[in-house]
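USER:
I wish I could look at a protein chain and see how it folds. I am handing you a single protein, as its sequence and its fold in token form. As I understand it, each token names a local backbone shape. I hope you can help me see how the letters and the tokens relate. The protein I mean follows directly.
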Amino acid sequence: MNITDTTHNITVSEWNDEIVTSLIPNIIVTFVYLVLGICGNILVLLVYTFQIKKRSDERYFIPILAVFDLIATFYIGSYDVFQCLHQVNFSNDIICKAAQYFVGLNTFMPITILIIIAFQRYVKICMPLKQTMTPSMKKALLSFAILLSILFALPLPFVYGVIPFKSTDKAITGTRCGRIKKGRVLIRIVYAAVLGIFAIVIVTTLIVLYSRIGYVVFRIFKTNKQTSTRSQNEDTEQEKQDGSSNQEENTMETTADEQILEVKQNSEEQCYVKSPAMPISGSQKRTINNRRISYKLTFMFFVITVVFILSYIPKIILMIIEGIYKDFWETLPTSTRSGAMFVNHIFIVNNIANPYIYAFMDKKFRDETKTFLKRAFSKIQCM
């Protein structure tokens, strides 16, 4: 008696629907990413356009980074949803190559901006006597970052394309957009090596720059603390000397006449008068305040960089696994595909988190955002 297993006799469309059903949690999470990233970065741009119109040197790159984060969030998030919906029926090779190119471009752009910011913080903190970046230098670095991102993304259309996707438990073959396995071996190897070197250089550069910045800031704080402690000790010693002087005067003969007593009392009063501290000029106050703001913003950019590194570690690990096991996605069971896809797309957090880091760590941005939202809501109510 011949029994046909009906689970094997399905079409590619039905197989794709089965996978899409398992990826519904991923699609929902990606939509949450899109809402948070788009709203957050648009708010940053609105605040810097209408509230913080005069951008200082410290905040020059914040709206620029927000622009690239906004584009990356919208494009990469939308493409992730599209990929989830077309796991085994992606058939257009041109769309696949173009999509991968722009994914790479939108990935590299914020990374290169973070490198420029780290370099700017290094110059600002570790070389304060040197001239800060001029507007023309910032524009030149920004242009170089865009050019570098374009160059690094250019090989992607030759590495990615529509490839066959065979089921391990169903007698069926679909197609998906992924890394090409056959042909162009040299291109794939060279590009993988260049990307690996690029990742190592980026992470090493960020670690070295922020380590140096952290060391300098720590040394400054330590010096200031020692100076403050020394000043307090001197004040305490002076008070002790004043107290002993007063005791000696109180033990003097009480048979002195009224005039001597009056002179004595006057001298006691003078002993308790403490010479006023040297007043701090307005320029010194501004310098101290600017330095404090600079340190806080540097720490904020350091946190942004840490979030960037942490968000890309899972993606890099998965890419290494893909390189070792060429049929990784084909052999992946449907039940665990959702988790693997979540890890594969989690790097988008790097583009989403920045506005919320600004709101948490930058008081000026937080206050200006409150003012902007109050004005916006008041205008809406008046309509």
About this structure: The chain has a mean pLDDT of 80. The beta strands are 160-166, 173-179.
